[in-house]
Amino acid sequence: MKNISLRGGEFLLREVEPSQVFTPEDFTSEDQAIAQAAEDFVRGEVQTRNAEIEKQAEGVTVGLLKKAGELGLLSGDLPEAYGGLNLSKTTSTLLAEKMSLQASFAVSWGAHVGIGTLPILFFGTPEQKQKYLPKLATGEMIAAFSLSEANCGSDPLSARTKATLSPDGKYYLLNGEKMWTTNAGWADLFIVFAKVDGEKFTAFIVERNFPGVSVGREEHKLGIKGSSTRRVILENAQVPVENVLHEIGKGHHVAFGVLNIGRFKLAAATLGGAKEALTIATRYAKDRQQFGQPIANFGLIRQKLAEMAIQIYALESTVYRTAGMLDEVFHGIDATAPDANAQYREADEEYPVECAILKVFGSEVLDFVADETMQIHGGFGYTEEFPAAQIYRDSRINRIFEGTNEINRLLMLDQLMRRALKGKLPGLMEKIQALRAELNQPQMPTPDPADPLEAIGRYVVNAKKAVLITAGMAAEQVGTELEEKQEIVGHLADCLIQLYAMESVWLRTRKLQQKGLDITIPLAMARVFAYDAFDKIEASARRAIHSFAEGDMLQILLTALKRYTRRTAEVNTMALRRQIAEYVTQHERAWSAAGK
């Protein structure tokens, strides 16, 4: 494996310097130009046809996808050897953020460029890549991903779709139905999963025009109505043997591997959606008059706007920090090398914990922002005359697809433990043992540093200790049954989410300070977020401890938790939120160092 600055899950164990993380302020003018081109396309070509997209008017979304392909907006993650732009992961993440300003189109676009295309890049043969990737890059072909079935949503390995080799050995005959396939109404190519001989879970590249392939009716969905969601029906579907993707019996590598990037890209999309919703909510609050003044003047409305901006700042910091980490592991892969697939898979499998964290955090931030956007609109928000209703409906799906948030919470701890057992988290058990020894040492309370950023830094260090000792003792007390105690795992996952986001916010704000930029608003947001995140970590850890410890052990762990989550200085978060709200109402957007 490459020499990288931080391996997956290591944020729990190591101190990180600001210079080691990527932030949005590190983008070049060329990166910004690509982002602007994407935003101009969405605002000029997509948002203007919102009504047609939402009604799935014939050919509209497909036409827009093909136009995006002509502009290079479908090929950011593809190598030049296959017609792609070969963008860095940070730049392609920025592209994903900008392409998300109309949710239905963003889902169609994301399914194509992500889980529809990347399985072939990561797992395909040279012949499969040469045949399909250039067409997917231009939009000549549109891709879809067919994994779920009626009886196996979160448990895809229990799939019933079967694949049987034809008597002449030229085809696999696939039989079954796949549910919830995004882009099914207009896709030319499906990544389909079936069990060879009813046992060996395997991925296939299935073209729409193969005999025996058809799709069902459009599902009537709560939101993202403009995206196509149908069943894929396979009735003795003839799939050439050369269209087996990866290896027979190893379809789970394809399914689970590509979902890591899918979850990460979903978080980037939720970031773009949340920023757009905040702008819409702010403009409405400034325009809406009540009691002789704009409702944006009222304290409770301003508190909402401030909290929306704070959560967006935290999500943005976390998304681009992770994008920079992904850049490290994907950079330099030769797409045409004999071992390219192995390199792609190794890179893709490095950060499953962080990708799961981002999927949950991003979808829940967007849901919060969408809900507050509707609340700020009041009764008008509940009508279809204003955009708040569509924003609210469209946001809800993000907590379900790419693995439900419940599944992703379980996945975080599962992947941490797997990485530790494989030796990919060296020092984890030693760190936990050192903390246990530290508990026996007396400690005199010391005041929080006067410098706010130094204070947040101490919160980060102590929060890591609190999470590690809680998780370590949970594993010791519950043992191999821990994964079955989902409530405990859920509390620990919530600790991880808040910790990773808090550290990301702290690192970004420190880096801004080191660059000599004005950090008045970023610092205010960092202080509020860290203060609240620290409280959430303490509460979640305490609930977890109460659920697995009793007697003396319970008291020891609660004392340890109090030791690590003690604060000596209080923060006037109300005053800080007022300061943030003033910025938001003045600029009508989330904070940006670019000033536009």
Protein architecture, described:
- The structure is a single chain.
- Strands 1, 2, 3, 4, 5, 6, 7 and 8 form an eight-stranded mixed sheet that branches. Strands 9-10 form a two-stranded antiparallel sheet.
- A hairpin with a 5-residue loop joins strand 2 and strand 3.
- The protein has helices at residues 29-46, 50-54, 60-70, 89-98, 103-116, 118-123, 126-138, 251-287, 299-330, 340-348, 352-377, 387-395, 405-421, 428-438, 452-478, 486-514, 520-548, 551-564, 573-587, and strands spanning 143-146, 162-165, 171-182, 189-196, 200-207, 213-215, 229-240, 244-245, 289-290, 293-294.
- Among the domains are: 143-250, Butyryl-CoA Dehydrogenase, subunit A, domain 2, CATH 2.40.110; 427-587, Up-down Bundle (Butyryl-CoA Dehydrogenase, subunit A, domain 3), CATH 1.20.140.10.
- The longest helix has 37 residues, at 251-287.
- With 596 residues, it is of the alpha+beta class.
Keywords:
596 residues; alpha+beta; Butyryl-CoA Dehydrogenase, subunit A, domain 2; Butyryl-CoA Dehydrogenase, subunit A, domain 3; eight-stranded mixed beta sheet; 19 helices; globular
CATH class of the domain at 427-587: Mainly Alpha
Overall number of strands: 10
Any idea what the shape is? Answer: globular
Indicate the mean pLDDT.
95
- CATH architecture identity of the domain at 427-587: Up-down Bundle
CATH superfamily of the domain at 427-587: Butyryl-CoA Dehydrogenase, subunit A, domain 3
The biggest beta sheet is recorded as:
8 strands, mixed
SSE string, helices as H and strands as E: HHHHHHHEEEEEEEEHEEHHHHHHHHHHH
Radius of gyration: 24 Å
**DSSP summary: helix tally:** 19
List low-confidence stretches. Answer: none
Strand content: 5-15%
Amino- and carboxy-terminal Cα gap: 40 Å
For this structure, the CATH topology of the domain at 427-587 is: Butyryl-CoA Dehydrogenase, subunit A, domain 3
Structural class: alpha+beta
Q: Assign a percent range to the helix content.
A: 55-70%
